[in-house]
Specification:
Number of helices of chain A: 2
Number of strands of chain B: 45
Number of strands of chain A: 14
Distance between the termini of chain B: 68 Å
Helix content of chain A: 10-25%
Radius of gyration of chain A: 20 Å
Shape of chain A: globular
Helix content of chain B: under 10%
Structural class of chain A: alpha+beta
Oligomer: heterodimer
Amino acid sequence: MKSLLPLLYTTLVFFQVAEAQSFYGKAQYDIKLFEDNFFFDATLEFTESESRFVFKQHEKQDWFRQDQSQFKSQKIRTDSIGYIIYRKFNKNKMSVRSFCELGKPMVYEDSVNIKWSLGSDTKVIQGVACLNASASFRGRKYEAWYSPDIPVNVGPWKFSGLPGLIIQVKDKKENISITIKSLDISKSDKKIDNQLNGLGISRENFYKCLDEEWVKLYINNKAIIAQLQAEFPDLELSDNDASKVRIGTELNFKE
Amino acid sequence: VKVSYFFIWLILLFLGIGIVNSQDKSKSDYTLSGTVYDSDNSPVELVQILVQTPNKVTLAYGFTNQSGAYSLTFSTQQDTIILSASRIGYTAVFIKTPTNIGSKDIVLSISPNSQLSEITVTDKGPIEDSGDTLAYFVSKFIDGSEKTVEDVIAKLPGFSIDTSTGKIKYQGKEIKKILLDGDDLTGNNYTVLSKNLSADWLEEVEVLKRFSDSRLLQGIEQSDDVALNLKLKEDVKAPIFGNLMAGIGTTQKYTSKVELLSYLKKVKLFAVGTSNNIGRDLETYDLETYTSRQLQYRGFLSAGEILNTELSPPTLLNEDNFIFHQGYFASNSFVARPSSKLSIRSVTTVYDNNRTFNFLDSLFYILPNQSGFSLTQQQNQNQKPFQLFQDLKIDYMLNEKTDISSRWQLKTNNDFINSINKTSLSQDILENSSNESYQLFGNLSYIKKINNKWASTTDAQFGIENQKENINLRENEDNANDSLFQSINQRYYNIGLFQKVNGILSENLYLNALIGASSITSRFDATSFLEDMTNPISDFDDDYSFKSLFADISLKKKWKSISLLSGARIRQVWLGYNLEKSNRFLLEPTLSISVENKIFESLKFTTIATYNREYVFLKPNNLYSSSLINSFRTIKSYNANPANPLENDLFIFSVKMQDFQKKNITATIELVYEESNEILVNNLFFDEAVVINNQIQGGNSQTFFSKYSFDKYISKLKTTIKLSYEYNLITTPQVIEENFDNNLLSQNIIGIKSGTYLGSGISLSLGFEHNNNTNKWRNTETNFEYQNYFVKIVCKPFSLINMSFNIQTVDFGKSRGGFSSVVGTKLDYSTKNGKIDFGLEINNLMNNSAVVINRLDSFSFSSTNYPLLKRFLLLSLEFKF
């Protein structure tokens, strides 16, 4: 991965030609959520008043990612616009564009208030000096590293609420891992696109849809295995002990 | 007396714990609110507000609302706080204010130079420090000429490598293991990996501090072990990958190496095969079976060699230049996980070699009363070692809280040495010797995590060893009557049962207890005879037995940055040597205090002070009283009491510092003082060319060892600098021709190494070592000093071509032989995709026939001519797949 320094240097030069109040930041992250077998490229755009986090865009609506050398694969339902989390800072809610059924993007409102506990450990990630913080969020414990030198209340995915840009977040078992790989902040009046095309749905109904889809997939897999096993009795076939119920990044919505 | 000792330790322990216990003072709650305006008096929203203590601990934070207002609540004991307000595009404001101020409005002004002055970003460091893990990004330190992982690690700040054994130390502490992308393929025999894995694959070297072997002991065991994790480049990892190298050269030289790695879902494998006659990469690695320090502490013993058959090339210059060998080494290591509960690890190595090693030695023996005599000797040696090693470890998870682990190791070793020895005082002596040995070790462990605070490990272990050494010396090949034979056979049977308990007694109070019983029986047979004599010159059998029952208990208390460890090993031993029987009760206390802290924000330091007493019993190979041949001109015997152990008192004080966030420095200070009683004393007699050494037990020695090292990476100059200084003072008794005195050796060693990227594809490595030794025995004082220089230039005249040129020189000073140098060069061409590499190498560029290496020890000065491998040109082709 490249150093952030040249990018920030460019940023400084940009700033010499315009007023200082409005800015536009763009950060690239690598993200892997619990349901993912791969890291995905993600982009976080932010200004003084809003942010938009986009990931998993792909031309194919039924994107199949495969790595034969590592024996892993993943089917991703998406489209060319991808998964989006949009926040307007003066509101307490975020809009989330996500996928449940194939070819049907959905948008739900989510309310997130993470109670971070600040630590005093320091670490340099991608050239940025960071401090640590930890929090429980929807059933998982996370450790985040943020930069107090970049004073924005912004972070990747649904994470925010720290005194500085969130540079890295991982859960304790590293099933979830998000790390910055580049950053550019420049003086600009550029506005962030706040359009999220998709079917409006409540958060509860969206997750209900995900659970139902999972059960369908689970039954379907079992049926395929049973059919194959009958055809090839000597083969040892398994679904890798897949759970009957869906286990996602967010385990509950109590916190 | 023993009981009172124990009470003193208990008192010390509780004193320590008492000192470090204290209670927090009560804290008060405060609220601070206000509004942030810009210079036009307009409220500014989304300004980051931080309330911190003067030493920058954040107490509260938030962002201003649409009206520019903020309100924060916090608790602290501090009288003053730092209130800061920052927003991108504005100059950040820091205000030191009384804690109870209640409200504070802030005015922010637009950054005058319109720069993002708030953002302080350091260059991406070559090293990332995240507490117990350090990550070195390899590309920042290498120049492209590194062949193996060991070559890379030697360049990283904080590391040192023992060139003769390959042992790797991080901040003065030897590492325990090397993991390959998180998997332990080789166990303690990590040199198989460090000396063979190609540097090309390597992306990152992680240092894992507080490494724990067992998943169940993590968080319970207070480990100080350090392990390395090698992370390979993502783009090279595949089900099967590796490289293939073959080369051919003038003077019938050849080299070949196959390296194979496999990253499969259930198996990870590293295999290497190498064969050459250019002096490189063929090593036995001294693979560790049950001779480990850990098992010695538990009471296990292994055989010691009587014959001195080691070929010893000079350590001052690269060994590759001297030993002429022809053979192969093959190794296969893998970890397989057939199911989620079962893990199998195997290490297999085969080593077969045919080495020739010649040297011409001029010796001057310094005898009492300023006298001495000189001797020249020439040795032409041929050694044919063969070694087979197998290590198999099977781990099985019985359930979430219980593991069972079994480990088996077998090592067989055969070595046949033929040499022709000539001295100025005698005719040619032909020497045929052999050393055949096998070691078998077995271990069964049952590890149980009782709860989150307690875990127990039960080990049943055994070790069997047999070593047979033969030597035949004859002055004249045609006259068999002069032929002298000696045969020594050593057998060891070790068995032990051990119970370890690790527990957390209360917050920050840890217990580590090991209770065990071990039993050793051993037999030492020696026979010497002249070929035509029916009666042997000497023939003896020594039976030795050693049984011990011990408890080793230590408590560790942590309080903030201070850790106090106090404990003792209590041993009852029963000893038998032939007809003599005895028993001893021993108390071996240990006390250690360490302080870990941070100064100047990012400089971490650890200070450790340790005291330890240990009794070490002599083994049968240090007890025999009849004379036995060591080599063609040395004879050794002992005058020692098996029931009388060596008594070692060790004091260690060390300071380790590191700052990899800002300054990229690491520094270590290590002071060691050891006092040993009841040691063996060299008692030397010279009978013309023959050295007779009758070692007598009963002396005492003092050793003071100090090492100061400082490593820094300067990112602006792309330079790593390693500075080190050693001062050692060693006092040991020595008897020569019945004259007794303490020998005082003082050593001063200064070392400087640097590696710099000069730009335009040119890298420069420089090394310098100054070594000064002074020996004082009776009225004789001898001083010996030398300088060692190393220069390596690597350049890329064209993008795909890498050239390297290196010089190694030792300077003994004008009066003692002057300079000895070896020069070599290499040119590499890689194809664009990096898959194929052509190499052209010229060894011993100056075609010198030999180098002269001088040595001075307490009773002799030697000047040795080591022949060099003649100049050859080697063409090689390497293919990565």
